[in-house]
Amino acid sequence: MGIFKHLRVSGSAVAPGGGASPVGDPDPPPAADGAHGPPVTGSSTKVSLWRSDFGASLVVVLIAVPLSLGIAVASGAPLVAGLISAVVGGIVGGLFGGSAVQVSGPAAGLTVIVAGLVQTYGWAATCAIVAAAGVLQLALGLFRVARAALAVSPAVIHGMLAGVGLVIALSQLHIVLGGTPQSSALENLIELPGQLVRNHTHSVAVGLFTLIVLIGWGRLPSRFKVIPAPLAAIGAGTALATVFAWDVARVDLPDDPIGALVTPQWPDGSWSSIAGAVIAVALVASVESLLCAVAVDRLHDGPRVNLDRELAGQGAANLTAGLLGGLPIAGVVVRSTANAAAGARSRRSTIMHGVWVLALALAAAPAMELIPLGALAALLVAIGVQMVNLAHMRGVHRHGELPVYLLTMAGVVALGLFEGVLIGLGCALLLTIWRLARISVKVTPQLDAPVRVTVDGSLTFLSVPALARALTAVPAKEVVDLSLNIDFMDHAGVTAIDDWRTGYERAGGTVRIDEVQEQWYAQGATGLPRPVRRTPPSRNRQAWHPLAATLSGRRQLEEGSEEFHSHVAPLVRPLLSELAEGQRPTHLFITCADSRLVPNLITSSGPGDLFTVRNVGNLVPRHGEADPTDSTIAAIEYALAVLPIKTITVCGHSACGAMDALLTPGSAGDMPYLSGWLRNGTHSLDRMSSVPDGPDRLDRLGRENVLQQLENLRTHPGVAKREAAGELELCGGYFSIAEGRMHILSPTALTV
Q1: Among the four residues 274, 488, 522, 735, which has the most C-beta atoms within 10 Å?
Q2: Predicted local distance difference test score (pLDDT) of residue 45
């Protein structure tokens, strides 16, 4: 996890999510061999990189060929067009793109657009539109506007893709059932019961068998998964039709692939319609590619994606594909994730996959022509259903954007792609306006304490009426603590707060304003920033309170809880909602119960990162010496058996009272349980036998104690076994309270 960075906790800040470079930063210098991968330091490393990319390219080509043919069928385009785009997406997209492992090719998300263009303008004119869209993408990439595509709400994008997936699944399901797709998704849905009743041909058997294999392949043992599921399913459907010599429609490739290349022809029609088609292809392909590139970036540790270069590379690929008679190209999630999972290290894998597709198209056309169209349709049904991604739905639901997703999806299915996207964008805009108008104001009168007023949200002119109504509930002539947890405040909001404050104080009350985030009010009211009152941790949090000395411990706890709920919880609620389903920490942190030691603070970690065990002196009883009810050993046992723990850290600290008690025999004489527990530290005390007395003796014992507890951990068979296997790392830390610094201990603490 890398949580120890020798940070001084006072005066330091760590950005959430670590220090990863932002998406879209320029690429590092290319490697010596021209690849877009890690620097090559020797011939053996270079051979290893080539071997990784070669193996990954073979995996991807096995997925790319059946998908490319199937998408061509769904788009109403010649089958060879899918192969052309797979070749161009691999070679041209790989050479000029900005992602190290993204694989481009014909994408399912564009099938609805392409099918409409083919019906309206014909195939040759559609190729011209694809080429023009490529030119537009090239221009956008050269003007470095790629990040602007990411401004579209992900809920709209995922909803659009889900809608397209349903359209594909409904249309191709008719082919699987031996029928003919209708002109719209709703008509396909209406006609579906009749298709289920009427058709029971060999094509139906092939399609259903392909679906069964495709669904069941993921449940087979891992040794079978060397063959990608799409290839296995298409192969099984083809074998079934071939063995029984069924008369079913099959793939029909031209005898002369070179002669079959289509010359683009500019479409006949109004310039506005043609321009709209070009823009639609360019934008959908661009957004899908950029989102895919960002997602795939999380799957590898190579160079980060250059979004502008990726957009220009997609433009070059679409220009080439359009001129050669291919489908529009975009980054494809299925191929890209397979490429990363197979160990691809650079763009060489993408380029080689394009070469293999070309070789197969030229040398293995007779074998491809055995593939039944029903099998390809079944593959597309599965792909379409998978595009309705439940993980995406859960993600947008957590952020309150599920209505945008569902309305976009429904609009695409019921009305069409453009109409569905417009509905989604309109819904997203309305949701944003509603959020700007929504504000939470909580007035909490307290006995013998100031009235607490907490304002959360965005304070704009839209939410001023709600704020004014809530402030009328504040009792007159009181001391009021107004806490503004505001992410934005416009002039109307500043004016409303200032007018209320002025009127309330003239009537004999007192208003103290605390801005948790930005100082919107302070700057808006005076033009100058005011010092921000930040409440320090632990019991000193109440030091500013005029009645702090008279508050009970329970009241301080209530105050602290309310302050967390008002100030901190809104900032961490998205993370906590993800953790609500369960914890998956990889780090077990054993430390002292001392109140001055705050594990998450000194390691710059957050909720869900550390599984923490605290006891007096950060002691770990040896195996066989612990009481059966010992909670420390129980926690270690649970962490190793249930949690994905990869690291165990024992952390001591300076001025430790437990270590002082070890150095002063009898100091815990009137505390029998404490005396019994400290016996677990006698081995640490033995390590100090050769150390002369001195002012640093306590500090040295604290460090030696950490290393001794690591040795005690190794006496437990589960720990020793996993450490020997390289599955577990043991680490020692020592926190200097005065320095505010964590030290990582070497195996010989006395020399640290």
Answers
A1: 735
A2: 60
Q: Where are the domains of the chain?
A: 48-428, 443-534+558-569, 583-751
Torsions phi, psi for 476 (to 5 deg): -75, 155
Confidence of residue 12 (pLDDT cuts 50, 70, 90): very low
Instruction: Kindly tell me if the per-residue pLDDT of 91 is higher than 90.
Output: yes
Which residues share a beta bridge with 105?
Answer: 330
What token pair was written down for 503?
């009127």
Q: Give, as one character, the DSSP assignment of residue 716.
A: S
Return the top range by mean pLDDT from 284-288, 395-399, 567-571.
284-288
In CATH, the architecture of 443-534+558-569 is 2-Layer Sandwich (3.30)
Beta strands 741-744; 104-106: pairing state: unpaired
User: DSSP letters of 685-705?
Assistant: HHTTTTSPP-TTHHHHHHHHH
Largest CA distance in the chain: 99
3-state SS record for 213-233: HHHHHCCCCHHHHHCCHHHHH
Please work out, in degrees rounded to the nearest 5, the angle formed at the alpha carbon of residue 88 by the alpha carbons of 87 and 91.
Answer: 85
Residue 370's φ and ψ, nearest 5 degrees, are -80, -15
**3 state SS of 195:** helix
443-534+558-569 and 583-751 share one fold: no
Instruction: Kindly state the tokens that stand for 480.
Output: 């009021």
Vertex 586, ends 582 and 587: CA angle to 5°?
115
Which residue from 48, 47, 24, 28 is spatially nearest to 37, judged by alpha carbons? 28
What's the half-sphere exposure (Cβ side, CA atoms, 13 Å) at 377? Answer: 28
DSSP state of 166: H
Q: What confidence tens digit (pLDDT) does each residue in 537-546 have? A: 433 444 444 4
Structural element, H or E, at residue 484: strand 479-489
Distance of CA 623 to the CA centre of its chain: 41
Cα 137 to chain centroid distance, Å, stands at 26
Report residue 46's pLDDT band, with 50, 70 and 90 as the boundaries. Answer: low
595 vs 603: CA distance, rounded Å:
16
Sequence-separated (6 or more) residues with CB below 8 Å from residue 113: 277, 280, 281, 284, 328, 417
Query: 37 near 637, Cβ under 8 Å?
Result: no
Residue 372 phi/psi, 5° resolution?
Answer: -70, 140
Highest average pLDDT, of 165-174, 186-195, 253-262, 269-278, comes from 269-278
CA distance 542 to 531: 18
CA distances from residue 744 to 18, 66, 287, 627, 748 in whole angstroms, order as listed: 20, 53, 45, 30, 11
Tell me whether strands 647-653 and 610-615 are parallel, antiparallel or unpaired: unpaired
Order of strands, edge to edge, in the sheet holding 741-744?
Answer: 610-615, 587-592, 647-653, 729-736, 741-744
Question: Is pLDDT at 48 greater than 80 in this prediction?
Answer: no
**Burial group, residue 207, by CB count within 10 angstroms (0-12, 13-18, 19+):** buried
- The three-class DSSP label of residue 588 is strand
- CA pair distance 548, 560, nearest whole angstrom: 12
Q: What is the pLDDT of residues 686-728, one digit of tens each?
A: 888 877 777 888 999 999 999 999 999 999 999 999 999 999 9
State the Cα–Cα distance between residues 683 and 750, nearest whole angstrom.
Answer: 15
User: pLDDT tens-digit profile of 616-634?
Assistant: 999 999 998 888 889 999 9
CATH classification code of 583-751: 3.40.1050.10
Whether 32 contacts 40, CB under 8 Å: yes
pTM: 0.58
